[in-house]
């Protein structure tokens, strides 16, 4: 799927005849966001598959997992190390492995193995908030190189080093007091859109 055809997130222009998306989830907050993303992709008639090897004991995250299971979203028991299998089976990967909490988990399993595999896929990668392996402020050279970045609430400093094709921000419902406290200047969201391209 050519990246230039992606106009929004979720990916409404991803052809319905090839709607398969792998959602790679880590054990912390960004992994939970990945579970929510998978659920939304399913609602929009995509075919997400989740790889969530280290499930969080947090009750909210368990609820997200249950919701995905009840929507018949399959969970992989392992991530193929043969990258070509991933390239052939899916049209895109959602990176919800580490996010802004990346420093704590980057070198530990299973995150390190997931990142090692994702660095070699040829299909488009969509990173949620902060690409896995990047520092939220400084960016990173050891992490993955996503094609699409979806910043949550507001772009993090590392987004200045993002060299992919598309950058979206999803922060329409950010409370005004938070916007004022952090001196955020959110973009205009057209119509009822919850994301906007930067």
From TrEMBL:
GO MF annotation terms: NAD(P)HX epimerase activity
Domain YjeF N-terminal: 1-186
Coiled coil, from the record: none
GO terms for cellular component: mitochondrion
Regions crossing the membrane: none
Domain of life of the native organism: Eukaryota
Protein name per its UniProtKB record: ApoA-I-binding protein 2
Species assigned in the record: Piaya cayana (Common squirrel cuckoo)
Gene field: Yjefn3
């Amino acid at each position: 799927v050519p990246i230039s055809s992606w106009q929004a997130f979720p990916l409404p222009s991803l052809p319905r005849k090839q709607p398969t998306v792998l959602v790679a989830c880590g054990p912390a907050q960004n992994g939970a966001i990945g579970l929510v993303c998978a659920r939304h992709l399913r609602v929009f008639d995509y075919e997400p598959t989740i790889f969530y090897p280290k499930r969080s004991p947090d009750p909210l995250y368990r609820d997200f997992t249950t919701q995905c299971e009840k929507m018949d979203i399959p969970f992989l028991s392992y991530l193929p190390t043969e990258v070509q299998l991933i390239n052939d089976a899916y049209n895109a990967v959602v990176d919800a492995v580490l996010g802004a909490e990346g420093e704590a988990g980057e070198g530990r399993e299973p995150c390190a193995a997931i990142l090692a595999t994702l660095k070699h896929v040829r299909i488009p990668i969509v990173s949620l908030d902060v690409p896995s392996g990047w520092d939220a402020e400084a960016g990173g050279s050891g992490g993955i190189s996503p094609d699409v970045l979806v910043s949550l609430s507001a772009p993090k400093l590392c987004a200045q080093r993002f060299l992919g094709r598309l950058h979206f921000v999803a922060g329409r419902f950010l409370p005004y007091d938070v916007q004022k406290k952090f001196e955020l200047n959110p973009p205009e969201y057209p119509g009822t859109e919850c994301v906007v391209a930067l």
